[in-house]
Design brief:
This protein is mainly alpha-helical and 504 residues long. The chain is built from 21 helices and three strands.
Length: 504
């Protein structure tokens, strides 16, 4: 009587790149078999002959030049198995364009960049027209090896899935004790009739939209009846709105091209706003319109000489109205635009930066600006004026400072107006120490750059010192003998007032 086999033949694991001759699928011997020894090797089973394109795809996936540092090799292997098994199960192994198919590490990066609430399942994007997967293959992709039944594993022979009628994943899992896990059957494996796994799978099997035939064949593009298929913008949008005036709204989602004005409309809008500002002079409205114009330029990534012109005009209007918040935003963008040599008036706004740092007493940023100045910039009239003003304040030369205040070019006087009161208090304290017991008010008016004696007297009274003014036959005098301590206190209070400290 012939002896039965002492072992069950199991095919050895193989890689994609190794060629093997097909062996007989029936490897059990009916002749007497000697006892198995540790060196005995089981016979090989049949193996699929993979197309050269698939082998080349696998080799390219693990080539040194295509390895990404942030993608683990284990993740790549799992994704590679998923891609090839989908093609095998869908019968598209020979029709997929493997040469142009994204590598598994690229697919993994794309999945990581998707938002958490995305409606796209994590499926390998085989986007060739002949590689569309069916809903049945999508359902099979959702199954893990633990939920796979014996008829699923015996359909095809893959390098990682042998068709011997058993679930080798379960056979390789060892458990520390005999207690069944949650949802496990009496044999230790998971029961497919269990309701919890089925309920989890149904969450990902939403019915595709009837209006989208592509969604029924591509499992990574699943949409519901109330959700349109999302598309990711690949570049800057081009607006289609033709309105010259549009209110500013802070964006909370991707911009809609129907509400964004293109460049030729924005050019007309800028001319319209300049005329309206000269005619009506309504700053809140003009500021809102300029912010909307700047937003349309930003979302379309328009960086030209027109962009520089728009930001410069808005910055000048903000200076005229004393709106340092909007001025700072424009000045910050202008610095980046000037670095790209797009034109404009960089020397003018460099002078404004120096004067602004004088206003905020920002010595750190002032030193950075002075260190970056070139000889050409120092010779420009506007920049030279700002540097002279800084030098006069550093030396305590109030006579020279107020001469420069009266000769400020461009719109620098609007910035100097913001801190000239502080410097007048400092100068009055110096005058009271230098001239005793009194001095004519006319002298103070000329030295501190006031337009008239009335303006000078009003300034002194506004700071609580009307008792220091003495009206005499030859005019009004300032009693300097009583003033030093008083003006020092007023200067300290003025310097302690909160101001804008943001650097530009």
């Amino acid at each position: 009587m012939p002896a039965t086999a002492a072992f069950t033949a199991v095919a050895a694991r193989r890689t994609f790149g190794t060629q093997h001759q097909p062996a007989s699928t029936h490897s059990l011997s009916t002749s007497p078999v000697p006892p198995a020894s540790p060196s005995a090797n089981p016979p090989d089973k049949g193996k699929r002959d993979w197309p050269p394109q698939v082998r080349s795809y696998v080799q390219r996936s693990f080539a040194d030049g295509n390895i990404l540092p942030d993608v683990d090799r284990h993740e790549m292997e799992i994704k590679l198995k998923q891609v090839i098994s989908h093609s095998v199960e869908a019968g598209t192994l020979a029709t997929v364009d493997w040469d142009n198919l994204p590598l598994p590490q690229i697919m993994i990066q794309d999945e990581r960049r998707r938002p958490p609430n995305s409606h796209f399942p994590s499926i390998s994007p085989i986007q060739n027209g002949h590689s569309d997967l069916t809903n049945e293959s999508k359902s099979n992709k959702r199954k893990s090896a633990e939920f796979a039944s014996s008829d699923d594993t015996g359909s095809r022979s893959l390098p990682w899935r042998q068709s011997d009628g058993q679930d080798h994943f379960e056979s390789r899992v060892s458990y520390p004790d005999k207690r069944p896990r949650n949802g496990a059957g009496p044999d230790g494996g998971f029961s497919k009739s269990n309701q919890a796994p089925e309920a989890r799978k149904k969450r990902f099997q939403a019915a595709p939209s009837a209006a989208s035939p592509v969604a029924s064949t591509r499992p990574w593009r699943i949409t519901t009846s109330h959700d349109a298929e999302p598309t990711e913008p690949k570049g800057p949008i081009v607006g289609r709105c033709q309105d010259l005036e549009k209110k500013y709204f802070r964006l909370t989602s991707a911009p809609n091209p129907d509400t964004v004005r293109p460049l030729h409309v924005l050019e007309k809008t800028l001319d319209h706003l300049k005329k309206k500002w000269r005619r009506e002079n309504k700053y809140p409205y003009i500021c809102d319109q300029f912010k909307s114009l700047r937003q349309d330029l930003t979302v379309q990534r328009i960086k030209t000489s027109f962009t520089v012109d728009a930001y410069e005009i808005h910055a000048r209007i903000a200076l005229e109205e004393g709106d340092l918040s909007e001025y700072n935003q424009c000045q910050t963008q202008l610095r980046a635009l000037y670095a790209q040599n797009l034109g404009g008036h960089p020397y003018e706004f460099l002078a404004y930066r120096i004067l602004y740092f004088l206003h905020t007493s920002n010595r750190t940023d002032m030193n950075d600006v002075l260190a970056d100045l070139t000889p050409t910039e120092k010779r420009h009239p506007a920049v030279k004026h700002a540097l002279d003003a800084r030098s006069a304040l550093a030396l305590g030369n109030y006579h020279r400072f107020f001469q420069l205040y009266l000769e400020t070019p461009n719109m620098g006087a609007y910035l100097m107006d913001m801190f000239v009161g502080r410097e007048r208090l400092s100068a009055l304290s110096a005058v009271c120490r230098a001239y005793k017991p009194d001095v004519r008010l006319r002298f103070v008016t000329e030295e501190l750059g006031f337009d008239s004696d009335e303006d000078c007297a009003r300034f002194i009274c506004e700071h609580g010192a009307p008792h220091l003014l003495d009206e005499r036959d030859d005019g009004v005098h300032l009693l300097t003998g009583k003033g030093p301590g008083f003006f020092d206190s007023a200067l300290k209070a003025a310097s302690a007032r909160p101001g804008v400290k943001a650097s530009v």
